Fold this protein.
Amino acid sequence: MKPAAWPLRRAVETVRSGGVIAYPTEAVYGLGCDPLEHVAVRRIIALKQRDAAKGLILIASHIHQLMPFMAELPAEVLAKLKASWPGPVTWVVPAAPTLPFWLSGGRSTLAVRVSAHPIVSALCDALGMAIVSTSANRSGQPPARTALSARVQLGEGLDYILPGAVGGLNKPTEIREALTGKVLRAS
């Protein structure tokens, strides 16, 4: 289920040029951009009509893509994350002291995931970095599960939609607090 070469190249070019894309994840279509592009992140928050204080998730194909955004973690916590990835578990971790405020919503933590979805993995591999990942929908509306639904809900606010099927999950991924293991959102 890897993406075709041309759509993947177009998605990569869009992200690298500061654009906003929609793409399939484990359960729903996600909205993404370069996490260090403040304007693109603000566009996603405005498009979703979301409170910026909620913070965002970063998604990657390998843990090393997330390391610059995370504070140093105890070895046993890092081992717990690595044991669950790649996979559908999002972890809330202490944020790196240099983390831009627009990613954390002003908190000292950040949500991160290494995805097993082949399109997400191929996209992050091609970019060589983690990207923002939040559900493709306006706040309070059901998340898009198809490219068409993402286009209908978010229309002209998207610069590109990377086509493909979502994974087998019926609900968004589980979210756990890394330091305590507490489940913040069940899958």
